Amino acid sequence: MSVIEMRGIKREYRMESKPSKIKKNTAQEAVIVRALRGVDFFAEEGEFISVMGPSGSGKSTLMNILGCLDKPSGGTYSLDGIETSSSNSDTFAYIRNIKIGFVFQSFNLLARTTALENVELPLFYRRDKTMDNAKRKERAINALKEVGLDERMDHFPSQLSGGQQQRVAIARAMVNDPAFILADEPTGNLDTGMTLEIMGLFQQLNKRGKTIVMVTHEPELAAYTKRVITLRDGLLVSDKTVDDRRNAQEDLAQWNKNHSLLAGET
Description:
Blueprint: E1 2-16, E2 30-44, E3 48-52, H1 59-66, E4 74-79, E5 82-83, H2 89-98, E6 100-103, H3 115-124, H4 133-146, H5 162-174, E7 180-184, H6 192-207, E8 212-215, H7 219-222, E9 227-232, E10 235-241, H8 248-265
Parallel strand pairs: 3-8, 3-9, 6-7, 7-8
Antiparallel strand pairs: 1-2, 1-4, 4-5, 9-10
Helix pairs in contact: 3-4, 3-5, 4-5, 5-6, 6-8
């Protein structure tokens, strides 16, 4: 089943150039910036895809459209059977809350709110009158259990490591059982050990059937996914299966072993 179906996606921005100081009567001319030039992208249920490309390639624009944070100038985007291209702002808000689980580089947790309360937050916007406080709490606890943080649910973000904070963010992304998880540079603020920990978690979630799209500029991280698409100059120029996929848990175990040896030598 296709979770994401993008056909001929274009995104153009109209920018007004400044009038010439030499030619005083010259009117402002519009400059058209073509961020995406007709992208076809499809993702099936259970895929783990990384989106790569240099600065200015259009990957941030594609991420915004995937996340229903922006609308394309042309083409169609169907998300889990919902055509989003002509949706209004209320439908967009519903899709973002129910169909997409966002994971950001900077975690975006509420500082004065416990891990459990942070995970519960999306459920308050669900528009589901049958979900009372007890059901919300149960779903949030289950999400934290899924990322291995059920024993830290009463901790505040300041009491958690960076990797643990990102685990809370991933639990929050999953609590509404979205069609897919959209991760934007999810390990950008983490050290090597925590990065491997989070990539291992993503691989576990994907193994359980979660669909994940991850934006990254690091080939080392893309090697943990199943498929890599590459953008350049607003075009999708490459779509390849990862043949020699790395195992993040094995790499983390080796990394810990190496650091233990180094610690023993000093």
